[in-house]
UniProtKB/TrEMBL annotation:
PANTHER family: PTHR31736, PUTATIVE (AFU_ORTHOLOGUE AFUA_7G06410)-RELATED. Residues 1-23 form the signal peptide. GO terms for molecular function: lyase activity; polygalacturonase activity. Its main location: secreted. Pfam families: Glyco_hydro_28. It comes from Lentinus tigrinus ALCF2SS1-6. It is found in: Secreted. The keyword Lyase applies. It comes from the Eukaryota. GO terms for cellular component: extracellular region. Belongs to the glycosyl hydrolase 28 family. Keywords: Cell wall biogenesis/degradation, Glycoprotein, Glycosidase, Hydrolase, Lyase, Secreted, Signal. This is Pectin lyase-like protein.
Amino acid sequence: MACPLYLLILVLGVVLQSLSVHSRVEQKGRTCTVVPEGHGRDDSASIISAFARCNKDASVVFLNETYHVERVMSTHGLENVTVDIKGTLVWGTNTTYWINNSLPLGYQNQSVAWDFGGDNVFWTGHGYGTFDGNGQIWYDLANGTSNMAGRPINLVIRNSTNFTMQGMRFVQSQFWTMAVHTAQNVLLEGITIRSVSNSSAPTQNTDGIDTFYTNNITLRNWDVTGGDDAVAPKANTSNLLVQDSHFHITSGVAIGSIGQYPGVYEFIENVTAERIICDGCHHVGHVKTWTGVELGVPPNGGGGGLGFARNVVFRDYTVTNISQGVAVITQCTSYNNLTGDCDTSTFQISNITWANITGTVSNALLGSLQCSGAAPCTDIFIEGVEGLVFYNTTLPEPAVECSNVMLGPGSVTCNGNMTIS
Ligand SMILES: *[C@@H]1O[C@H](CO)[C@@H](O)[C@H](O)[C@H]1NC(C)=O
Ligand SMILES: *[C@@H]1O[C@H](CO)[C@@H](O)[C@H](O)[C@H]1NC(C)=O
Ligand SMILES: *[C@@H]1O[C@H](CO)[C@@H](O)[C@H](O)[C@H]1NC(C)=O
Ligand SMILES: *[C@@H]1O[C@H](CO)[C@@H](O)[C@H](O)[C@H]1NC(C)=O
Ligand SMILES: *[C@@H]1O[C@H](CO)[C@@H](O)[C@H](O)[C@H]1NC(C)=O
Ligand SMILES: *[C@@H]1O[C@H](CO)[C@@H](O)[C@H](O)[C@H]1NC(C)=O
Ligand SMILES: *[C@@H]1O[C@H](CO)[C@@H](O)[C@H](O)[C@H]1NC(C)=O
Ligand SMILES: *[C@@H]1O[C@H](CO)[C@@H](O)[C@H](O)[C@H]1NC(C)=O
Ligand SMILES: *[C@@H]1O[C@H](CO)[C@@H](O)[C@H](O)[C@H]1NC(C)=O
Ligand SMILES: *[C@@H]1O[C@H](CO)[C@@H](O)[C@H](O)[C@H]1NC(C)=O
Ligand SMILES: *[C@@H]1O[C@H](CO)[C@@H](O)[C@H](O)[C@H]1NC(C)=O
Ligand SMILES: *[C@@H]1O[C@H](CO)[C@@H](O)[C@H](O)[C@H]1NC(C)=O
């Protein structure tokens, strides 16, 4: 029987297409090695192909070479896969492409360059496997514009259970280095992040990691240099443990901002940050919510969210030059940094402890606790801070400024009221 012409054309088309989607993967048994194209050519198709072929009971290997990523990648549904990175992945600088094509994070209208997910994934960078986000072009482009649309998070770990990453370096991230969205039993250890601007533009929004809908994440042995929060748990984060880490010139661990979606109930529960060195950090720990009044839309606007943040401990810190207050709560986050409505949030903050902190503070501010009149904070503790030296000695004792903090047994002693705009 004669083959219909349209079928021939169809088959030919498929063959041509598969030839044009060039990918270089060497497969031996259950190990897929991504071989770089070289000459600066895009390796994203090869990487996606490797994860498609070695997606179960397998390994995906990156050689000690440089790989170029010029396109968004989504690699999901992995099961019992080892990711072995011996080289460097460098992200492309075509900001027009990324702004138009970055994949949705599914929160805050943020977007991502690589969306990754699977169960029982073991990812190792051996202490030298590197992601280079080529972030300078983004720092210069944004130049202080907060949360620029389409500016991508380098990597999101999504829909994953039992995920371990060890020994990875992240330099010059485009935006936040990492997000974790909908995941549990995640261990990320031996992670070095360094995002530094070499121009007059700041590295704003280069958070280390933000978490959403996650339970049981451990971050251990992190070293973070960046222009924003090192670690920022957000909506529905529970049982987050941050240990044995060193943060440089960041906001350290910042709980939130949360309460950004009007009428939506969210929580942050059981966060412990311990044995941390913070050099030049803004705070030891900051808990922050949006106001109760919706102004604008996410990422840079919002407010009016419901819920709670509780059982948070920042302990065993060694600090130098804390610049904006050791223990800080604000319920005033607002659209494009507008001020006001600071007493309107009904987001409930309770049981927050800052304990056993030594080192130096560049002003006299131990506590700056601005809670909302609509939901005063309860069980706020600051203890074991005798080992802190405050450079500003004009005050008889370190300042703890409070607004709407309920005092109870053992709780913080306030010695100043705040003026709130
Ligand atoms: C996971 O995959 C490896 C091969 O990479 C295999 O040896 C091992 O048996 C698998 N584990 C399970 C639980 O299937
Ligand atoms: C990677 O290769 C470079 C040379 O191309 C070499 O200098 C370096 O030691 C290698 N790194 C590792 C960890 O093997
Ligand atoms: C999450 O992963 C599981 C297991 O791989 C899969 O069955 C499910 O479809 C994924 N869910 C979503 C929303 O992608
Ligand atoms: C950048 O990406 C855009 C959109 O994908 C494309 O039109 C343009 O040709 C690219 N520019 C370069 C220099 O590759
Ligand atoms: C995660 O690991 C635990 C403990 O090893 C195991 O019991 C569980 O089945 C794993 N979960 C998935 C989704 O594989
Ligand atoms: C939490 O995750 C770790 C892996 O980081 C795992 O070993 C542990 O069993 C998990 N805990 C619970 C209660 O599932
Ligand atoms: C960032 O903006 C400031 C103020 O407009 C300007 O002076 C500076 O040159 C800009 N920096 C870069 C790298 O574009
Ligand atoms: C938080 O920890 C407490 C014990 O300290 C536990 O009872 C509670 O279930 C935990 N919350 C979540 C969401 O796991
Ligand atoms: C307060 O939080 C700490 C640390 O998570 C926890 O151990 C303690 O049980 C909490 N207290 C109450 C009353 O829930
Ligand atoms: C927001 O206001 C604070 C305090 O006035 C200031 O330090 C910060 O630079 C402002 N941020 C932006 C994005 O304008
Ligand atoms: C602070 O240190 C003291 C003395 O070692 C200890 O009793 C206390 O439990 C610590 N506080 C916290 C919150 O870990
Ligand atoms: C010291 O603190 C006082 C009161 O907060 C303030 O007015 C003064 O500017 C501070 N001095 C320095 C050197 O920071």
